Amino acid sequence: MEPRERVVASLNHEKPDRVPRDIGSLPVTGIHTRAYEDYLEKYPPEDLEDTTVEIDDVIQQLARIHDETLQKWGIDTRGVSARPGSDWTLEIRETEKHHKFTDEWGITWAKPKKSGYYYDIRENPLSGEITEADVRGYSWPDPKDKARIDSLRDEIEKIIREDRYFISMTGLGPGIYELAQWLRGYKDLWLDFLRNGDLAHLILEKVTNMKLEFWEMALAEVGDLIDTVYMADDIGNQDNLQVSLDTYREFIKPYQKRVFNFIKDRAPSRVFIFYHSDGAIREAIPDLIDVGIDALNPVQVSAAGMDPEVLIEEFGDEIAFWGAGANPHGTLLNGDIDDVEREIRSRINVFGLNGGWVFAPIHNIQPDVEPGKIMAMIETLNSYGN
Question: Chain-centre distance of CA 331, in angstroms?
Fold first, then answer.
């Protein structure tokens, strides 16, 4: 099977020739620049002439993985992303202790100079005491700015010129709920759910409409070339949902359903919905199926209620699982080579070889993961994933 055929078969719950693999096609399946630099120092691909590592995701400091490495790892997916708007450029400024920048949404991010691995949110532009007029009058980015899809078609055609990889696309920001949290602030948005529902709905409605406008433009340009659309709305904590299921159904679910249905209806060929949420989300999975997701990521098996065998038993016929591989915060970080091999073999035993699964680490590979464990992960897939 060619790479795209392999992934599509598995997402359709058909048996592929081996377990499909994704590392690096999406903002939640990547590898930190530090971990990737360490890996290349020890295991550089023979045909890779320039081992310089570029940053693909500034906030998470994810590496742009060389195609030579992806081929060596047997990765079936490739990722593309929307560009920033034409009226914004990345400008990183320095303070005494931090590197900072403000994104095109007006959100300020900061990374500590000392021992800083990532950028975290420091200022939410719509936080505090605001009115509906403040939301309507806010300086929102233009979702239909043609700069966002500039040369995107050429990029994808170049990727699939020789091998037809499965193409994942990241659009305008993360998911609807998550972007609303970034803008309003987590606490303020949760309080709005309780005390000021109209304001919460207005923010979510605005974000939703912007996503619809963006995807209308993007799908007209590259909808025939992309295979999955990335959406990330973290609705889970370690032990339960962030908000009650009733609150999810009132404030989040209707907007997700509008966007997902819109994408599927407007795409000129089939597009799968890739949905990311960390945490204990077992209770919400039936609703996520109802809103139209096709693949659930990252399948955080350490969270309450996220036992792989139970998930397969209850939902394996209705959605595919994308993730559930070695744990970057657990085994990959603290275990040894044998632990990594055992964990991946156990995942293969549970999720099987009969479709419905795309292997990926459980979120991004962290900066302190040793090169030997990354190699062990790939070698175990080579040995047991066929």
Answer: 21
Compute the distance between CA of residue 332 and CA of residue 339 in angstroms, rounded to an integer: 8
Residues 195 and 239: their CA atoms lie apart, in Å, by 25
**At a CB cut-off of 8 Å and minimum separation 6, what does 154 contact?**
none
Inter-residue contact 76 to 165 (CB < 8 Å): yes
pLDDT band at 312 (very low <50, low <70, confident <90, very high): very high
CA neighbor of 11 nearest in space, from 106, 100, 77 = 77
354 pLDDT more than 90? no
Name residues whose C-beta falls within 8 Å of residue 54's C-beta, 6 or more positions apart in sequence: 63, 64
What's the average model confidence in pLDDT over 146-164? 96
Q: Which two tokens stand for residue 118?
A: 């990532």
Band (310; pLDDT cuts 50, 70, 90): very high
Tokens of 260: 């997902």
- Cβ neighbour number for residue 375 with a 10 Å cutoff: 17
Taking the whole predicted model, whether its pTM rises above 0.85 is answered as: yes
Check residue 124 and give its pLDDT.
98
Quick check: helix, strand or coil at residue 155? helix
CB 167 within 8 A of CB 156: yes
Task: Tell me which residue has tokens 């795309």.
Answer: 358
Looking at the chain, list the stretches that DSSP marks H as alpha helix, in order from N- to C-terminal side.
3-11, 33-42, 67-73, 132-136, 152-159, 176-184, 186-195, 197-222, 245-251, 253-266, 285-291, 308-315, 331-334, 337-351, 371-384
What integer pLDDT is reported at residue 107 of this predicted model?
98
Longest CA pairwise span in the chain (Å): 60
pLDDT digits (tens, 9 = 90+) for 287-298: 999 999 999 999
What is the rounded distance in angstroms from the CA atom of residue 85 to the CA atom of residue 150? 10
